[in-house]
Amino acid sequence: MHLQLESVSAGYAGADVIRELSFELPRGSIGCLLGPSGSGKTTALRAIAGFEPVRSGRILGDGRLLSAPGWHVPPEARAIGMVFQDLALLPHLDTLANVAFGLQRWPRRKRLARALALLELVGLRDHARAYPHELSGGQQQRVALARALAPQPPLLLLDEPFSSLDAELRERLGQELRRILQQRGTTALLVTHSQQEAFAMADVIGVIERGRLRQWDSAYTLYHRPADRFVADFVGEGALVPGERDETGVVRMELGRARCPTPGRPGAVQVLLRPGDVTHDEKSPVRATIVHKAFRGAETLYTLRLGGGSTVLALLPSHLDFRVGETVGIRLAVTEVTAFENG
Ligand SMILES: Nc1ncnc2c1ncn2[C@@H]1O[C@H](COP(=O)(O)OP(=O)(O)OP(=O)(O)O)[C@@H](O)[C@H]1O
User: Average pLDDT of the chain?
Assistant: First the structure.
């Protein structure tokens, strides 16, 4: 389904919880809403699913009007599949029957074969006869996912679908789900707190803050070219350092010069440097003192203080193993940076 939101506002009794939300998700693509707790992500999904009316704007699926003020297609008539955190499994049905539940109109043999195939996919074929109360939280989430996928909905909405899973299973299931969705050309919109999950799953990510969409872009663009300081801060680690932009778009910093691809006025700026933008180089004239280190396995994240007082982060191979207090040579590893105007 090609999903379109046009300036949608929705909320509960008092104030709007989502405000003028606009984005478009082409058929077969996977989108993700990322934002702090309470920013309105679940409310956005509920409005798309048809559980909340919209107060202004329009929601369209394949060009068909689903929601507008005074217009509301009921949830069951929207052909949208859902995996919601609070959408409980049917307690009196076993796992297999739960997954087959949405396939009532299918012939019995086909229905069971499909439910079993989906249980296989989520790694629960051995639990086909177990009841929901006999499953762990993570297993229940996997059953809910299989149940939502079974009828092959043209649009699938997923609210924190992997929150009860451990990191390894989360990654495996995420990759598997992405493959299935792409194979079938299913459009999906996912809500998550986890940036890693968003990066791994989504073609396009929307960052929401207090009900407003700050940016709707690819993971790369969000991370390296955030539209504002909120997105820069929310998506990934980094540091802002002072710089001076000239009229040609070149920015000078204590660490060196780089080009700023987005247009902006000349003058004092704050430059965003991600941990991968700074590298170790003993030949570099720029020296910095290590004030903190965090071992991450293959890499170590160093916090370094420059002579001028600003602080940067650098993600370096962990075998280098510098000591806190040590002074090392560093340089920019990139030729282009994102800068924000002061103020
Ligand atoms: N049924 C409801 N009635 C009244 N207010 C609600 C209701 N559901 C949510 N809210 C309020 O709307 C705001 C947004 O909630 P929502 O669940 O959409 O945020 P979220 O971004 O999904 O948060 P989280 O990541 O914590 O799940 C919150 O301030 C919440 O208190």
Answer: 93
**For residue 86, what pLDDT is reported?**
67
Paired strand residues for 32: 190, 205
| Secondary structure (3-state) at 220 | helix
Closest ligand 1 atom, residue 208 Cα: 21
DSSP 3-state of 60: strand
Q: Which residue's CA lies nearest to atom 16 of ligand 1?
A: 40
Q: Which atom of ligand 1 is nearest to the CA of 193?
A: 25
Q: How far is the CA of 130 from the centre of ligand 1 (A)?
A: 33
Q: How far apart are CA 45 and CA 299, in angstroms?
A: 37
Residue 264 has a pLDDT of 87
To test the ligand 1 pocket, which listed residue (42, 158, 189) has its Cβ within 8 A of the most ligand atoms?
Answer: 42
* Residue 137, pLDDT score: 82
Ligand 1 centroid–CA 241 distance in Å is: 35
Please give the DSSP secondary-structure letter assigned to residue 101. G
Say what the pTM is. 0.88
In the chain the domains, ranked by start, together with CATH numbers, are: 3-224 (3.40.50.300), 238-341 (2.40.50)
Question: Which residue ranges have their beta carbon within 6 Å of ligand 1?
Answer: 12, 17, 35, 37-43, 193
Classify residue 133 by burial, with Cβ atoms within 10 Å: 0-12, 13-18, 19+: exposed
DSSP 27: T
Which residue has the CA at smallest separation from atom 18 of ligand 1?
40
CA distance 100 to 110: 10
Closest residue by CA, ligand 1 atom 26: 37
pLDDT digits (tens, 9 = 90+) for 211-236: 999 999 999 999 999 999 999 999 98
> Could you give the ipTM of this predicted complex?
0.94
Separation between Cα atoms, residue 114 and residue 129, nearest integer Å: 15
Q: Which atom of ligand 1 is nearest to the CA of 85?
A: 27
